[in-house]
Amino acid sequence: MRNTDGHPGPAEECEMRPYRYCFMSIYCGPYDMTHDYWLDAGSPGGDFYNCMVDWACANQTLDNYIDRYCIQEVVGHGPPCSCEEQTRIHHCGPYGINTEHCDEAWQVYEKCLSN
């Protein structure tokens, strides 16, 4: 299972943030990624800000990051990772997936998924 196999509804209904717009000057693109996250994912597209305004590049960044950390040492098994594990890796990083903060974040996502 790939984490970015598609968004519900037509892609043209999704709006990409403007170039170089980052929430709190840190979290950029459609998935609120940081520059360090993008570096960890192998720097797809070669330029962070250009990547964050391109759906294909942002999706590749997300896929690369999940692929890098969906491993025995992080989640206790190899791929594939569950939706919950992917969410925890993306939102909390590979070393924060079992924290209380991450539990709270997962509960928000889980509630959204169940609607």
Write a short abstract of this structure.
This protein has 115 residues and is mainly alpha-helical. It has one domain: Lysozyme.
> Based on the structure given, which CATH architecture is correct?
Orthogonal Bundle
Contiguous uncertain segments of 5+ residues: 1-11
How are helices and strands ordered from N to C?
EEHHHHHH
Overall pLDDT = 85
The amount of beta strand, in percent, is under 5%
Reading off the top of the CATH hierarchy, the class is best stated as Mainly Alpha
**Strand arrangement in the largest pleated sheet:** 1-2
* Count of helical stretches: 6
Largest sheet: 2 strands, antiparallel
Supply Rg.
Answer: 14 Å
Question: What's the overall geometry?
Answer: globular
Q: How many strands? A: 2
Fraction of residues in helix: 40-55%
Structural class: mainly alpha
CATH topology: Lysozyme
N-C termini distance: 21 Å
